[in-house]
Amino acid sequence: MQHIRIVSLSSFVARVGFGRSLLLMTLCLGGLLSQSCALLQSPSDSPPPSLPESAKPPVKKPPAAQARLPQTGEASWYGAHHHGKRTASGETFDQGLFTAAHRTLPFGSKVKVTNLANGKSVEVTINDRGPFAEDRIIDLSQAAAKALDMLQTGKTMVRLESSSGP
Hints:
20% of the residues lie in helices and 23% in strands. The protein is an alpha/beta fold. It folds into two domains: 9-39; 71-162, Barwin-like endoglucanases. The protein has a six-stranded mixed barrel with strand order 1-5-2-4-3-6.
């Protein structure tokens, strides 16, 4: 029966007699290779530690393109849940006023909103940002939604136009 003897690289180099410098170089190379193998291990199942919110850089969104009027699309409304809270313009939201949220129109813009289902129109002032539902183009205050007769449905197709009022 044959015996197989496993010889380490360093003992082989020492036996062959290449000298100490080659032995030292071999040991260094072996150390580097073992470190590389350790770095190639598969990642653990645990998620990486997350940074606290204050340490995360703010996510910058590209500036939205300025809306061009007229626009046609779906409108929705918001009311009591937001009443008394600050809008994006800094005003306090009042569900009884004729105001609206639009993604890009400048604050203070006057917009004529026409309900395409019944032909009713109302003028609103843009004082907030939204809507956050992708399929909508404007969020109206409860008062504006009531004037357009859309409170029951919650949303309706509208046409937005620049208002001729002040």
